[in-house]
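User: Here's a chain of 252 residues. Predict its fold as tokens.
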Amino acid sequence: MQQAEFDGAGSHVRWTEAQGAGPARVYVHGLGAASAAYHAHVAARPELAGRRSLFVDLPGHGISDRPADFGYTLDEHADALAAALDAAGVTGAELVAHSMGGSVAVVLAHRRPDLVARLVLTEANLDPFPPPSAGSSGIASYTEEEFVDSGYARVLGNVGPMWAATMRLADPRALYRTAVGLRRGSDPVMREILVGLDAVERVYLQGELTGVLDGADALEAAGVRVVTVPGAGHNVMFDNPDAFVRAVAGEA
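Assistant: Prediction complete.
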């Protein structure tokens, strides 16, 4: 386990690391998740093994610290991720990022282009104010105090067992603020940033069961390779790991 301070007040973002050749491959989880739990099984596959791999838990999640006075916006998560990569001596990395983590990865590529050479985004949030079915929308429908007091337990009881297993490791206040920040989005918005990242190789994975990706044609026209993964929903790395590995390896 490695760590780096991210807030100037002694709080640390942490990651586990598998040694290997460069460039580094950095795995970033979604809202209420943890990177190793969602990605270690695919990182160990022969097609992806042998690369230096970092499994980073964002602030408030997994093994990272959860300061009460941190904002947990997309920008702040991106800066914390940058602190981890700086401490690890990583530049020009390949970021494999899921859902909310994909939004953070896009913002990081915008704020610190030296750190990112390739983005593999799995159902990343590209637009503010997603539909009510999104996990962030349900969390953000509470006030912060309502969520901390009772909403967190209610959400844990309603989500599936896989998500609940990692969500219960997240700090309730951090989870709430992260959901609110994700719904608010970035400035410029994530989709606009992604379109403009001409120097970065960009792949977007969309689960077939989720439906057609909004604006896919415009993304492809901007050089983003959109891959629809058959038989997969939001958690592509679990639903169709073979296709996920092929896409990360650049074979899909």
